[in-house]
Design a protein that fits this description.
The protein is α/β, with parallel strands linked by helices. 33% of the residues lie in helices and 20% in strands. The chain has helices spanning 12-22, 35-49, 60-73, 96-109, 120-124, 130-136, 148-157, 232-244, 251-268, 278-281, 303-327, 341-350, 386-396, 410-422; strands at 28-31, 53-57, 77-80, 115-119, 138-141, 161-162, 171-175, 178-181, 190-195, 198-205, 212-216, 218-221, 297-301, 352-356, 370-373, 377-379, 402-406, 428-429, 440-444, 451-454, 459-463, 494-497, 501-504. Strand 10 (198-205) and strand 11 (212-216) form a beta hairpin. Helix 1 packs across helix 2 (35-49).
């Protein structure tokens, strides 16, 4: 929505905040901003100052709203979730959040996005250092020479799991001269076809049909795990060395677990509880802040809530850590996996930090160099009734030079356009890449998490509720004939059991 880029230029508080940022007066604070206004401020400042942004939120719901609004406004962004660490050997393990984190880190590191949005606890959790992420990424191009064994070795080192057929992220499969894999940073799985030791074809394929979709020139294979290690034997030796240094009441329990996991790593080549060995794999700790360039803007939404969330997270971690130490799961030196609120304040004090709050508060954790209070009004969703819309337009036309109405999809936009003009409102249509008009009523497709007004700039935006897509119709399976008595079956008949699936009736035996 290009027309939103310069709306705030007519607001004095926004101009003051931008001048303060240009002169390096940080940290600063802007109050009077609801969630959608925060997203608009972030979008506008990044466009005007030509900088990227890190946005810290107190909960996932607000983070997702800001992500959605930024994307609708035209700022490409990624969400960086927090995740649970795994310290025990378990069979089934979901790595969805870990894959999202790696995808977000690589997107920001490679310059594919302009902003990264995260909850404060996720941003402070330890992750793969930027240098390790670069070194673990392998470039693949058509015509290059690389052996299948070398590619498979790179996938295993990157934390990928070998399977018969790729069905999800973090998996790879080998069939003759074809290697399939699904990267966390991609939305479709990839296929590399070899001719000897030369890459013949690189393409994406459909995960359901397993058929090729699009031929590619090449791509970069990113790791599938935040903890990558080249040699399983080398890591197992480090674990054994760590076991020899353990002291204390639970030393015997700890040593048994460490030696057992070291042996398992040697035999299997991978370890589901690898998270506990972060300090052995990466001598230097890294968080999301290590990926953010020094001149990037850091927006902190509702700082008191962030502090309260971190207090709750660290309290819960203290309780869990006590149990882990008592059971011998963790020990001294293998017990730190996140920074705390003090470390967070230290980072914010060194960055281009802007606190964005809904209400003005008397105190702030850091001494402010600029404080502005926006006179922004948030509007509730428009339900879709044209009569209600006309009433809103009549009330707003006196005070606003420009009124933009987001109508969801294109079809509904055209219908509302026809209806308003039939009632004499002289409305116009606006495309997302059109600049801001000077005055009038305009309709555009799309939606935001809420509408808003800037009386000082003479601007109002009304948004329809996000229109959900119609659910896809699933083909109903033909229902078979139910059997109520075994006398209806003869030996050799094929049946479908409700629990065990397809089978052949072989008679009754005592």
């Amino acid at each position: 929505m290009k027309f939103l880029d310069n709306v705030l230029d007519g607001v004095e508080e926004y101009r003051t905040l931008c001048r303060s940022a240009e002169n390096g007066r940080f940290p600063s604070m802007a109050t009077g901003l609801a969630s959608v206004n925060k997203a608009h401020l972030i979008h506008s400042m990044c466009k005007r100052l030509k900088k990227r942004a890190l946005v810290l939120c107190a909960d996932e719901a607000e983070a997702q709203r800001i992500c959605s609004d930024l994307l609708a406004m035209g700022t490409k962004n990624v969400y960086y979730p927090s995740r649970d660490f795994t310290f025990r050997q378990i069979e089934g393990l979901s790595r969805e959040f870990e894959h999202q984190r790696i995808g977000a880190l690589y997107s920001y590191l490679s310059g594919e996005c302009s902003a990264i949005v995260a909850c404060v606890d996720g941003a402070l959790q330890y992750t793969i250092p930027p240098k390790a992420l670069k070194n673990s990424s392998v470039s693949i191009k058509t015509g290059e020479e690389i052996t299948i064994e070398r590619l498979v070795s790179a996938l295993v080192s990157g934390g990928y799991t070998r399977v018969e057929q790729v069905e999800g992220t973090g998996q790879f499969a080998v069939r003759g001269g074809i290697v399939d894999f699904f990267m966390p940073s991609g939305d479709k799985p990839c296929r590399v076809e070899f001719w000897g030791d030369e890459i013949d074809t690189v393409s994406s394929f459909d995960i359901d049909s397993q058929r090729r979709i699009e031929t590619l020139d090449g791509f970069v294979i990113t790791p599938s795990s935040e903890l990558t290690f080249g040699s399983a034997d080398e890591l197992s030796q480090k674990i054994e060395q760590k076991a020899k240094t353990v002291r204390g009441k639970t030393a015997q329990k700890v040593k048994e677990i460490l030696y057992s996991e070291a042996e398992h790593l040697k035999n299997a080549g991978r370890l589901t509880s690898v998270d506990k060995y972060y300090s052995l794999i990466y001598p230097e700790k890294a968080t999301l802040f290590d990926y953010i360039e020094q001149d990037a803007l850091v927006f902190v939404s509702e700082q008191p809530k962030l502090k309260e969330r971190m207090r709750a997270v660290m309290w819960q971690w203290g309780e869990d850590l006590r149990d882990y130490l008592a059971e011998g799961i963790l020990c001294k030196g293998l017990d730190s996996f996140s920074d705390d609120w003090t470390d967070e304040l230290g980072e914010l004090s060194k960055r281009n930090t802007i606190f964005i709050d809904n209400f003005a508060r008397g105190t702030c954790e850091l001494p402010l160099r600029e404080l502005v209070n926006f006179n922004a009004r948030q509007r509730s969703f428009w339900s879709g009734s044209v009569n209600v819309l006309c009433e809103d337009i009549d009330a707003l036309r006196k005070d606003n030079a420009v009124c933009i109405i987001l109508c969801g999809n294109d079809k509904f936009t055209r219908n509302v356009y026809t209806e308003l003009n039939s009632r004499g409102y002289n409305a116009g249509l606006l495309k997302k890449d059109d600049p801001l008009p000077e005055r009038g009523i305009y309709l555009c497709s799309g939606s935001l998490s809420g509408g808003f007004e800037y009386p000082q700039a003479g601007f109002c935006l009304i948004t329809h509720t996000a229109l959900s897509e119609a659910p896809k119709k699933t083909k109903k399976q033909k229902k078979g004939q139910a059997m109520f008595s075994l006398s209806e079956l003869s030996p050799g008949d094929y049946v479908v059991h409700s629990m065990h699936g397809i089978g052949q009736f072989d008679g009754i035996k005592k």
